[in-house]
Structure prediction request, 441 residues.
Amino acid sequence: MKIKEAVLALVLMAVLFLAACSTDAGEETAGTNADEGNDSGDVIELDFWTFWGSETRKPVIDKIIEDFNNSQDEIRVKHTHLPWGDIWTKNLAAVAAGDPPDVIINDINTVKQRAVNNQVENITEYLDEGMESEFYPELWNAAVYEDDIYAVPFNTDTRIFFWNKDMFEAAGLDPEQPPATWAELEEYAELLDDEDGGRYHTIGFLPNYGISQDIWMMNATGQGFWDFETSEPTLESDKAVEALNWARDFESRYGLNVIQGFEADFGNQQANPFVAGKLAMAIHTPTGMYTQLRDYGEDINFGVAPFPEMEEGNGHTTWGGGFVAEVPYGAENPEASVEFIKYLTGPEAQEYWAVMNFDNVANVEGAEAAAQSDELSEKGQEVYQLAIDNMDNTILTPYPVEAPDMMSLINPELEKFRLGDQSAEQALENAQSAVEDLAGN
Prediction:
């Protein structure tokens, strides 16, 4: 018995020894890899929040994360998807509780508000010198507050003009010549209308389909609604009045009842009136309209061009928005977070995102590579290239810290004008006054 007990004791000791060796070897391997990036020897884990949970976008962002994780041994990123309506309120709650995510995708036009309210980290010290040259200036500037950088642009959008070439030809118009000015746009629309006893089978153009009155104002004036140099609203101008009146007068040829009924018939992507061949011309985001045409309108022979000018020489100004990658305030390791952000917004990841989602990206090199990608059709390349070129005409409207809720005061006044309850002059005067009061001017 003593011999058996001794043997069992030796076996047990051997098992324990081997187990210990195995554990030590595993910890050493992990430590060796992690030691390259930090003194503690621990892999840094980052929680990345996005609202990209669709069957098309989630696999793309997951692949970018996987590629980043495989590219180095110091940082591991996990993706947390939250619904569009919840992500930013939950982020602010997490920041307030001192337990924020490490990286989040957020709105580009509200970066300055989060900066001034200590809701986002200042990441200037972690960025590479000259990094701003890699991005479209309008996008980069939206992420800067008082000369410090609080986010890196990820993607954006713009608005361009689409027209149905076959409908142009049927109406006696040159199918290769879109309208260049508002006057031509109105002239062409009248020729393209197909009306019978007050019922429109096709409509030439609807000025507020795909865009809204405020974008017509920007196209006319070439600017947004706030001057960041003087810290004052810039709503009242003769051109802004002219733009509002022109758009409403254009609509009046059809009447709001006709327009609302027409729009009600086309409430989803598959029934987009331009894609369905019921609208001859439209202004829309290139990515949104093209993907609908690609998926649901294969028979539509269309062209693309910049936003028509108010008059010759006035400019093709249009509006864009977008999203940024940023580090919420209080994140545990902002330097590691920025390393991931640099990969996420670098040319390789940006090209992949652009091609797979047909989405305007913020990195210039990534966008230009996407426009030449063999993954896109010839038509897709044409549309994407115009989207890139149109960034020169695209302005963003970052919300000023002095008046972060200004649009909630402006839009009701513009809508009252559209409904005929007040003049354009009165709408803009009321909006200007309300924003000035909000800003304390």
In short: The chain is about 45% helix and 15% strand. The CA atoms of residues 222 and 317 lie 6 Å apart. The radius of gyration is 27 Å.
